[in-house]
């Protein structure tokens, strides 16, 4: 029988990583490790998530999906994605600035790699004073001007910088130039893809003095040079406890903030549900009496076949609710 599943986090040591995944999100990370990413739920080849709770403990996400099909991700989703889990869910800790980068869209990625492109959303869990992100250009530009700015090493002059505060959210569609500056702790929701074109790494080198590879030519092919504003998500209230953060063709994200019990009915939603607990803790009650405890820094997926749950909490709790 299917039940809400937790997975073993996949930690990624990064040149820009820090300690907030451990100190704020309670991840069990070895001392002195610069962990930049915790992959919470991944179907990416070579990084398949493994179940850590219940009788399915030890099974891979890919095995669960191929075994339970539409009961796990929903009829519509299974028809589209088959045995490929459609989302990649992460926590990110930027102790230093990330590389300046862009992701290709589905059409380009399918033609070149036979896989999907990547659009993503960032939800700011915590931000240091003066923390910011880069999202898009600060004006309409074009390939010629872009190449000129790269040549002059003055690309920053046409980039759009945005200050960040706790609970800000930003949609980063494919083709949009972007970076995360130091001081941001982020929940990242994205298409299941790990295709990234690195435009600049700010002249950074590793311990051996080596620079990371840049992907200049591919980046120019997929960049969107049009100015579109900051794409900061504006919340829309659904109830006293729930807000729409983003609805897109790739995924939808709601924000739940509560310190009391909430009953949720998903019977009209043909999809799995993912909860990312970003503050507090709660009991997830399903099948009327079964309970799983979820606390800050944990991610859990509710199979599509489970259509009613109860969130029980007595502390101020914040949850991201994700589905397709």
What is the structure about, briefly put?
The protein is mainly β.
CATH superfamily of the largest domain: Jelly Rolls
Low-confidence stretches: none
**What is the rounded distance between the termini?**
23 Å
Largest sheet: 7 strands, antiparallel
Descriptive notes:
By secondary structure, the protein is mainly beta. It folds into 2 domains: 5-222, Jelly Rolls, CATH 2.60.120.10; 236-323, Jelly Rolls. Helix content is 15%, strand content 37%. A 7-stranded antiparallel beta sheet has the order 1-20-17-22-15-14-13, with no helix packed on it. Strands 2-3-4-11-6-9 form a 6-stranded antiparallel beta sheet, with no helix packed on it. β13 and β14 (242-247) form a beta hairpin. The two termini are 23 Å apart. The mean pLDDT is 97.
């Amino acid at each position: 029988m299917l039940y809400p599943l937790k997975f073993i986090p996949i930690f990624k040591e990064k040149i820009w990583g820090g300690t907030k995944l451990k100190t704020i999100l309670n991840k069990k990370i070895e001392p002195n490790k610069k962990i930049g990413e915790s992959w919470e739920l991944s179907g990416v080849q070579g990084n398949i998530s493994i179940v850590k709770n219940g009788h399915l403990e030890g099974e891979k996400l890919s095995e669960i999906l191929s075994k339970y099909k539409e009961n796990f991700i929903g009829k519509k989703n299974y028809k589209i994605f088959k045995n490929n889990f459609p989302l990649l869910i992460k926590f990110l800790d930027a102790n230093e600035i990330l590389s300046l980068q862009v992701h290709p869209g589905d059409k380009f990625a399918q033609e070149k790699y036979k896989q999907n492109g990547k659009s993503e959303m960032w939800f700011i869990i915590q931000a240091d004073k003066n923390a910011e992100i880069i999202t898009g250009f600060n004006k309409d530009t074009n390939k010629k001007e872009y190449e000129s700015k790269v040549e002059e090493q003055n690309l920053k002059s046409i980039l759009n910088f945005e200050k960040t505060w706790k609970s800000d959210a930003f949609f980063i569609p494919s083709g949009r130039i972007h970076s995360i500056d130091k001081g941001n702790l982020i929940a990242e929701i994205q298409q299941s893809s790990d295709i990234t074109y690195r435009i600049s790494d700010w002249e950074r080198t590793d311990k051996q003095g080596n620079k990371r590879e840049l992907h200049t030519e591919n980046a120019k092919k997929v960049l969107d040079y049009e100015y579109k504003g900051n794409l900061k998500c504006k919340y829309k209230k659904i109830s006293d406890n729930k807000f729409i953060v983003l609805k897109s063709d790739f995924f939808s994200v709601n924000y739940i903030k509560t310190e009391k019990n909430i009953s949720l009915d998903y019977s009209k939603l043909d999809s799995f549900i993912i909860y990312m607990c970003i503050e507090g803790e709660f009991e997830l009650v399903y099948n009327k009496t079964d309970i799983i405890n979820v606390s800050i820094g944990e991610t859990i997926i509710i199979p599509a076949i489970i259509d009613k749950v109860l969130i029980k909490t007595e502390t101020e709790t914040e949850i991201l609710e994700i589905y397709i």
